[in-house]
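note to self: dont lose this again. the chain is below, predicted strucutre after it. 103 aa total, dont forget to put it in the shared folder this time
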Amino acid sequence: MSAVFIACESRTYEEISDNTPITEKVTYNKDVKTIIDANCVSCHSPGAQDLTNYNQVKNNIDNIIDRISRPNGDPLKMPQGGSLSPTQINIITKWKADGLSEN
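---
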């Protein structure tokens, strides 16, 4: 005798991803730098549109938030060929709301 279990549930990425609200203060060095380094610096390093240090990221925060928040399929969405997780987007957005602290 064998049994087959089938789940008839369909959930989107947003529903299953960790989108827990961030309650502590977000800073560049503690939270944002690792996201930028892992997802942006490979294309946005020495040359045009650098995002390799605190001032460059801070000075471009509105454009960064706009680009990472665009829907999949939008040619201006960043990072190209992928997407940040909702949690990573929330961290960057909260960093701006918290005042763009470096440390």
